[in-house]
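Long-time lurker. I teach an intro course on protein structure, and each term I like to show students one example going from raw sequence to a predicted 3D structure in token notation. This year I'd like something fresh instead of my usual example. Would anyone be willing to generate the tokens for the chain below so I can use it in lecture? Attribution to the forum is fine with me.
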Amino acid sequence: MKKKEFSTEVGGKTLTATFSDLTEQANGSVIVKYGNTVVLATAVMSKNKREGIDFFPLTVDYEERFYAAGAILGGRFFKRESKPSDEAVLSGRIVDRTIRPLFEQHIRNEVQVVITVLSIEKDDPDILAINAASLALGVSDIPWGGPVSAVRVGKHVGGSELEINPVYDFRGHENVTLELVACGKDGNINMIECGASEVGEDEVSDALLKASEEIEKINIFQKKIISEIGREKQVVPKEEISAPAKEYFEKEIRPKVKKGIWGEPGWVKIDTVEKAWLLALLEKFPEEKSSLADAYFDDAVNDAVHELATKENRRADGRGMDEVRPIFAQVGGISETLHGTGIFYRGGTHILSALTLGGPEDTQLLDGIEVRSEKHFMHHYNFPPYSSGEVKRMATGRREIGHGMLAEKALRAVLPPKESFPYTIRVVSESMASNGSTSMASVCASSLALMDGGVPITRPVAGIAMGLMLEPTRQDFVKQNLGGQAKYKILTDIQGPEDHHGDMDFKVAGTERGIAAIQLDIKVGGIPIPVLKEALAGAKKAREHILGVMTGTLSAPRPEISKYAPKIINLTIKEDQIGLLIGPGGKMIKHITASSGAEQVNVDDFGKVTIVGKNGSAEIAAGKIKELTREYMPGEMFQGKVTRIMDFGAFVEIGPNAEGLVHISQIAPFRVNKVTDVLKEGDVVPVIIKEIDERKRINLSIKDADSEFASKKGIKPSNQTAQ
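-- Reply from a regular --
Happy to contribute to a lecture. Here you go:
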């Protein structure tokens, strides 16, 4: 095996990159090791371009292998990997979002980057995946504008120090106040994924600066490797429409483009202009490829949108740069059967979120190579094709998983602890109409749904998407790092075309107290941190405005959960009563569940009983358990049922699985010759607990409960001495 290794220190640990002929058919590959976590990254570009498309065909696959965890995972009947876990999808997305802006978008050759997790221990493979993908692309002959590097920055509650690349356990720790993944190059940032516990904008900025320092060290490391062993890059020429077609476009179509953009939200007018262009192309230049014509038109729209913003200080729909579109908020109003609902409009973006509450057994089991735990809060996001006026196959893809997780991360900061609110919580956001940042609108709608359902969140969360328009020399702006005269405009609440044609999609969610989640995607080589700080300030102002509308609709969580939601009752029994509650083979606990109508009845090893049920069933089950496990005391009186007759007395049931003995001497205040003279099986009799002996046997008395009981049954005392 031919092999060459390079090492550097990151966050106090050694990062090793190994290049060999192991995957020699790939254009570029590397094995990266950090601690005992190891990933393989490969990059391959097709030899021929893919015809008939108008986009750059990049695929990023993040492959988890069960063996990486040193365990035989999977289900009982299926032990090999199947569809990617949510963790794998999200990890693949951050790699994609990081490397994609650095490709020339005119390339039509398919590029595939495959990340394979070979080993996992304490260190998270997602950070390694980004750095490995960069190295694989960097040393390959695939044209790409890297390298780009990534680190994770973390901070604990009350801590003053920012930690670089904290171990995996850090991410799920309740004392974590900030977890930020940042990627970048040349002092700029080109991808952010952040979850936080209501931290301030300055704290996020400090984390970005810290991350940028480490990123630069890794970039230097990568550049050294690429200069030493990197292959010469292929040249992929840009294919364009002919000169006559361009001349026609510039004369007849381009003047209409700006007019088509201005004054209307979304794509209302511009679609008409594009149809006119394609029709003219078909008539006058039938030899031209429609995909190239689409791309040329898209570039013209792109230029017009940027010029409007940077030169004329105008936006397509006439709003000010820092103006949020009209907002509408509503809670409820769909069906009382739903445990809580929220509807949120921001301009042409409309979201419906629905809340469902369940018991502890409704948690999602996570069993992957990275994590094995239970998930008590789930936020899911759906983007049906009708929300964008399209006809497509209904499916849950990477976008849906990513947007759902972003909102989940934002809302997690305000949820009550499961100790005080033991419900499993699921919120589903439905994108009903899309015109910019449905993910941030889903944060708002889901906050309303949680409050409508009586979930005691600490305060509502709102989200906003910030955009950026750079002057036409956009790459120069990035390279200058604000050092020149480059113009830019930060846009608050970007709509669809501004997202599509803009240079940045900067999603920020938080409360009145601070930031809860961030996601940054860009279309240029990187964004300087001062610009991001400016965008954070704009996002805070917009967030406060949105929160004002939301709290005007519903100021706080409702005091009670929905009557249609299950009720959870917690009881504690003694450990020596656990077997009594469960019964032989689970017979008793199954009987209580079935007879009460409860959905769930569970007891742990410490005697904590959790009951889940609707329509009073939980209360019924709780009552049965209390009766079953109650401790009886001398002097308590009951109406008991005679279960067995013996020569020496009768056994009387006084409660579930509880019976005592009425000795023949305790039946009447006079001598009773035979028990059957007074009692028979099935009789309901008054009894009082006379004593409970050291073996916990219950001795009962009828005569002390009702001295006339025998007489009422027609039994008269004999001439014998009264007992």
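Some talking points for your students: The chain has 15 helices and 30 strands. The chain has a mean pLDDT of 90.
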